[in-house]
Amino acid sequence: MATYTVHTAPTVRTVRTVHASPLGDLRLTGSVSPAGDLSLTSLSLPGRRDAPEARTEDRDDRPFAEAHRQLDAYFAGRRTRFGLPLSPAGSPFQHAVWQALDDVPYGTTTTYGELAVRLGVPRSEIRSVGRALGANPLLLLRPCHRVIGADGSLRGYAGGIENKRWLLTHEGALQPTLL
Fold first, then answer.
1. Over the stretch 52-62, which tens digit does the pLDDT of each residue have?
2. Distance separating alpha carbons of residues 134 and 157, to the nearest angstrom
C-alpha cells in the first residue's frame, strides 16, 4: 500500500492594529507570513468610508512595532520617507500610480496632470489617475495627499480634505493659516 503525504501551503494571517496620531486613530491592516514578517495592506485615516472592518479577533499589535515607530517619527517631524513592506491589493495600473507617489518628495506637491505625464497616461485619461489615487489603500504611506489640482486647489482625498491640508502643512508644502 502506498503512503501519501499531503502538503498544505503555509497560511498567512491578517492582523490589524490602531495607531494614535494627531489626525485621530489610524487603522493599519497587514499580512503576517509564517516566518512572522509583516507586509502592510492598508492604512486608513479616521472617517474613510471603505476602511477595512476593525475586527477585534484580528487585533495584534506586535507585528506592527516598526510601523508604529516610523509613524511616530513622521508625526514628530523626524521621518520624511517610510521604509515598510507594502502589499496592497490593486490592478497593475493602480500599482503603477501608487508607486509613482513614492517619487513625490516630502514637503512638495505634484498635480494630477504632472503625475499622468510621468506615467505616460494620455491627457484624455487623467481621471483614471484620480480614480487610482482615490483607491489607494495605504494613505500617508503612499503619499496621495501630495497630489493637488493644477490650480493649486486641494482636490479630493479619501482621508478628507482637512486631513490633506493638515498633512501638507505638517510637511511644509502649505503654509499654516491664521484664524
1. 565 666 688 89
2. 7
144 has catalytic annotation = yes
Select which of 144, 147, 168, 174 is catalytic. 144
Query: If you ran DSSP here, which 8-state letter would residue 10 be given?
Result: P
The helix or strand, by DSSP H or E, that contains position 67, with its residue range, turns out to be helix 65-75
H or E stretch covering 20: strand 13-21
Q: What is the pTM of this model?
A: 0.87
pLDDT in tens, 126-137: 999 999 999 999
Residues 116-122: what's their mean pLDDT? 96
Give the CA count within 13 Å in the CB-facing half-sphere of 122. 2
Contact status, residue 134 vs residue 156, Cβ threshold 8 Å: yes
